Amino acid sequence: MTGQLYVIGDDGAWHEVPGVTSVEFNEQQPDGPPDDEYWRLHDARDSLRFMWAAVAGVRAAAQLRRSMQQLVDQVDEAASHAGDAYAKATARTRPDRPAWQSPYGPGPRRR
Q1: Residue 14 backbone phi and psi in degrees, to 5
Q2: CB 57 within 8 Å of CB 65
Q3: Rounded distance, CA 11 to CA 59, Å?
Q4: Does the pTM of the predicted model rise above 0.70?
Q5: Distance set, CA 4 to CA 16, 24, 25, 27 (Å)
Q6: Where does the chain have alpha helices with state H?
Q7: pLDDT tens readout for residues 55-101
């Protein structure tokens, strides 16, 4: 009987490893409890994991702030155009005839 060894590749498919005649598993366990260096690395890894979540939140907040600023700029621009149009529409022009000749009646009284 010949042994065959397959490994999963980056593409997710199984690929045969040629030339393998035997496989030996080393089941040794570490001696004793983890040392201080292990716990420092473990704590550093946990800190990085939580930091990346915080960084992602900061990035999302910054993107939201930029989007809101763009929206505010668009609203300001639209409001200025609307204000200009309103000013043009309500600008008093010199009437063609006096108010008593208007088909709509007299004009508003000035206070």
Answers
A1: -85, 135
A2: no
A3: 31
A4: no
A5: 7, 13, 15, 21
A6: 36-90
A7: 888 899 999 999 999 999 999 888 888 888 777 777 666 556 555 56
